[in-house]
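Quick one, tokens below. Sequence please?
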């Protein structure tokens, strides 16, 4: 993906959603969640509290509609590359692994109140550096644009005057609005709308409601696989970025981030990471994009 700096310091992201959303989020097994790779705009952070992790049950907050990192499998069970990684870490530590699908808009309230231990689901670091306790980045990612095969759109310039959609509170969306790295491109669109989940976005793209969808590359690969006659991923990407595991910005959060990072290095050394990358390889996950340095 052409990213030169593969060793970014531990970072952190903002918290801000109201605690009133928490109950609805914990019930969030429906299709209302948003992208776990979301790049949120800066906001005032609600104070985090230590004690969110009891040392026994490791609760992973994730978007259940963000394949291949976290989603509902054909068997009805939660699955995905990041969930498998998290489970492998829990097995090393002797923790109980508990995946918890969340409403993305309530992620900060859930994390800072201790209702989830971390956010681990293709969680973009860039733009969140000062507000979460992050592991060092473990995976490269990029934001891309998907169009219909018959659209005649072949590059980003071809989006001029088109109707584009992105997931609410996503990294792709914030790239394209005021202050984003692709702000100038976004200004050329006829409109830029948001949707709650990628399933809806791809259905509306196929139906012609929108001309393009801005999305994480692995999600694009997953949703276009087997539909190459319907969709095309533009070769020119919107950006390059990195994924990390995000914890509350507390002493405990920093300690957990360091512990999980060390476990990921150990899982890389014993071949587990490569095996999981291969498992999800046909869904856009590649070991070539694993960037967490091996332990010295």
């Amino acid at each position: 993906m052409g990213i030169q700096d593969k060793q970014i310091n531990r970072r952190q992201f903002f918290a801000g959603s109201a605690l009133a959303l928490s109950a609805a989020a914990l019930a969030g097994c429906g299709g209302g969640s948003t992208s776990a790779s979301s790049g949120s705009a800066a906001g005032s952070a609600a104070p985090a509290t230590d004690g969110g992790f009891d040392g026994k049950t490791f609760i992973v907050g994730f978007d259940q509609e963000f394949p291949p990192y976290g989603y509902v499998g054909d068997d009805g069970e939660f699955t995905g590359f990041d969930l498998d990684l998290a489970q492998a870490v829990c097995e090393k530590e002797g923790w109980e692994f508990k995946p918890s699908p969340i409403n993305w808009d309530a992620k900060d309230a859930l994390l800072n109140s201790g209702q989830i231990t971390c956010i681990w689901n293709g969680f973009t670091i860039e733009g969140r550096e000062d507000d979460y306790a992050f592991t060092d980045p473990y995976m490269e990612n990029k934001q891309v644009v998907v169009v219909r095969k018959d659209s005649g759109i072949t590059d980003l310039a071809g989006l001029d005057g088109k109707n584009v959609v992105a997931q609410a509170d996503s990294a792709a969306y914030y790239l394209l609005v005021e202050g984003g790295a692709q702000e100038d491109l976004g200004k050329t669109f006829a409109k830029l709308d948001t949707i709650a989940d990628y399933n809806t976005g791809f259905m509306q793209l196929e139906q012609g409601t929108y001309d393009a969808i801005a999305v994480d590359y692995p999600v694009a690969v997953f949703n276009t696989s087997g539909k190459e006659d319907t969709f095309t991923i533009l070769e020119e990407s919107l950006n390059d970025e990195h994924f990390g595991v995000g914890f509350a910005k507390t002493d405990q959060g920093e300690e957990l981030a360091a512990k999980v990072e060390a476990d990921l290095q150990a899982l890389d050394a014993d071949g587990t990471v490569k095996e999981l990358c291969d498992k999800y390889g046909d869904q856009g996950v590649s070991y070539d994009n694993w960037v967490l340095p091996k332990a010295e």
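Confidence is low (pLDDT under 50) at residues 1-45. Residues 251-269 form the longest helix (19 residues).
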